[in-house]
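Chapter review. Work through the record for Acetate operon repressor before attempting the end-of-chapter questions.
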Amino acid sequence: MPAADQTLRILSYLARQRGPVPARTIATALELPRSTVYHLLAALQEHQFVVHLPEERRWGLGIAAFELAGGYSRQEPLARLGRPVLADLVDRAGESAHLAVMHGRDVLYIVEERAPRRPALVTDVGVRLPSHLTATGRAMLAALPREQVRALFPDAAAFADRTGRGPRRLGELRELLRGVRERGWASEDGEVTLGLGSVGVAVLDHVGWPIAAIAVTFPTDGAREAADFAELVAPVAAELGRRIGGARPATSKL
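Structure tokens for Acetate operon repressor:
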């Protein structure tokens, strides 16, 4: 196996851990010879991509890895890749669409494509909204581990309210997310703005992590149902996942 591939696997593995780990754990998890892992870790340490904690005998990500993340943010590849697929979605749906990422327990909108002659929405770029009330947020929360959802919503105070609708307790949110996982898409009806609903689908990376979500917003008094829009949004979310290197699309029950 090429050394470059092994090196990238080590970095990806470290990025998924909650903290530094021993070299033997890395070798076991990746099924690599321990001597190879130590050799590659030493090279990564020299270039500051990993750091060794001698007292703990563990390895973690270094400052160079952090700088890569900063470069990713500055270049905005997710937004750049998302704009053309959202523009195409708007053309086919006839309604406005947006791309959002998780930001704590909120969603942060990074792209909005407004359909002609449609009303202005609150989902402008840079706006944050409570994730448990939005279709994009629900789509991403449904793909997160149960423990992380609980950590984001530890008590009733975590459940912000906008229109008097939406879950108020963790149990209600879990039941809502169970439905999202079964369908493969999320929806909201008037929880953000009365009279408007949204359908959202998560964009998954190569390990199935929800890095973003795409949604379409539409008037709830129209003839089209949420499932109609879900059929349009799901393949667009899968396409964006493919463009960013995702190994598989979001699960869909359509």
